[in-house]
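Q: For a teaching handout, I want to show students what a protein-ligand complex looks like in token form. Below are the inputs, and the small molecule is RRO. Please produce the holo structure.
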Amino acid sequence: MGINLKTTFCKIPFTSPLISVSGIVVEISQNIKLAQIKGIGGITTKSISIMPREGNPIPRVASFGIGIINSVGLRNPGIDQGIIDIISLKKQTKKPIIASIVGFQLYELPILAKRVAVAKPDFIELNLSCPNVDDEIGRPIATDPLLSAIAVMEVKKVVKNIPIIAKLTPNTPDLKKVVFEVEEAGADAISAINAVGPGMIIDFKKRKPVIGNRIGGLSGPAIKPIALRCINDIYKTVKIPIIGMGGVSNGQDALEMIMAGATLVGVGVAVYKHGQQVFDKIFKEMKEICNAEGIKSLKNIRGII
Ligand code: RRO
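A: Here is the structure, written as tokens, with RRO included.
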């Protein structure tokens, strides 16, 4: 008998602990394709704002070998279309859907949460940590423990029956304080980490930054050590469950996230680099490693380090 990787998160069953993250997948059609993949347990939408957004100037994504840099700039269809997209995604799959929302002002978050709840997603993720809109909104909410708590509290006042996930940034010395406050405010789960930085990569020949917006958030294997540290800090600080992400591209990476304290594991850049089938590869590798190592249940290794 091999290991069974079925996982429960906030009482909701997942056929796999692997989920897609809110990131560079913007189009609903791509999410519909993702939902067909066996190794994927759940889908996260691109973060949805009140108004549609074109995003930052191209190129928005560039690879630098051990990672990518992105400045997508919150390209998304806006809440009206976002609701329609989630309803249509839900018709295509039984897998849990995490609707990610983002506000430019704090007061937008409860408005967005109430509206997106109409589409009945299984979870609502508050993206409190976009690294790419500094010029428009300043530092991400999740760099500030009090603001993070207020964001969660205001959303919890208007959405009672859908679990609320707070997506946090590694770009703060206050992560433990932020996560403590967010739990106190009533968050049901944490998602970590968003991109690191921002950073910059240079096109040497052209003497200019590669990314259209000059700078962007780093993700992919380069940030895995930071992700593991943050997830473990969060695990040791609060009791609510964690979606761990940041540089997962194989079965061992995913199991390391669980050993650091994650319950679900997000995969983003590996999909960009290797295609959607990477979920099946990682799922298979997780099983093989667990069986070879005598790990009978993921519960036995969660937070073990
Ligand atoms: O759209 C983006 O530029 C973006 C977002 Br909202 C985010 O949360 N994280 C990221 O790396 N890029």
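A: Two things your students might notice: The pocket of RRO is lined by residues 47, 70-74, 102, 127, 129-132, 194-195, 217 (CB under 6 Å). The chain is about 35% helix and 20% strand.
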